[in-house]
Structures are given as C-alpha cells and as structure tokens.
C-alpha cells in the first residue's frame, strides 16, 4: 500500500513542478498587464474577460468530473492576479 501511494506521490511532484512553472509564467503575464493598466489608469477588475476565461475553461473541461473544481481554482488564481496588480 505504501509503495502504491509513494509512486503516485512521485507523479504528483512531477505534476506540481509543471503547475509551478506555468503559474509562474501566468503571474508574470498578469503582472505585465497590471503595469499597462497602471500606465493608462485602467480598471484592474475586467469582469467580461473573466467570464470569457471561465466559459473557455468550462468548455475545455466538458468531459471532466473536475470541471467545477478547476473553475474554483481559476477563480482563486484570478483573484490573486488582481491582488498582485493592485500592489503595483
Ligand atoms: C489579467 C487581467 O486582469 C484581471 C485578472 C484576470 C486573470 O487573472 O486572468 C482576468 C481579468 C482581470 O480581472 C486582465 O485584465 O486581462
């Protein structure tokens, strides 16, 4: 039993490495967008863009039992990008 879990945990570590690297890229990009918003005095919150992202995620996750979980994660990621943009 322990070795079964250990194998899956190693798999999770690899997946986490990918997520970390992609999250880092995503936050770098939202940071750049934040700098442009500051320069042109634009609103940080862009609700129609967020709806577009959530719709795209739901479409991509149509056959996944984790659709709602993934949408929750994305809402959280977007709220953190906005917090980071507001620090600029
Ligand atoms: C990144 C942006 O800023 C905010 C954060 C978003 C995100 O994390 O995807 C989307 C829309 C905005 O509320 C943007 O305006 O595109």
Automatic annotation (TrEMBL):
Q: Does the keyword Transferase apply?
A: no
Query: What Pfam family is a match, any one?
Result: CM_2
The answer to whether the entry has keyword Protein biosynthesis is no
> What InterPro entries does the record point to?
Chorismate_II_sf, Chorismate_mutase-related, CM_dom_sf, CM_II_prokaryot
- Chorismate mutase domain residues: 1-88
UniProt superkingdom: Bacteria
Q: Which UniProt keywords apply?
A: Isomerase
Please name the PANTHER family in this protein's record: CHORISMATE MUTASE
What is this protein's name? Chorismate mutase
Organism equals Fusibacter tunisiensis
């Amino acid at each position: 039993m322990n070795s079964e879990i250990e194998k899956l945990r190693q798999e999770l570590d690899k997946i986490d490495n990918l997520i970390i690297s992609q999250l880092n890229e995503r936050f770098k990009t939202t940071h750049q967008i934040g700098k442009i918003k500051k320069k042109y005095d634009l609103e940080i919150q862009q609700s129609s863009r967020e709806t577009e992202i959530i719709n795209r995620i739901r479409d991509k996750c149509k056959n996944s039992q984790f659709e709602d979980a993934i949408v929750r994660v994305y809402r959280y990621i977007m709220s953190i990008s906005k917090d980071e943009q507001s620090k600029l």
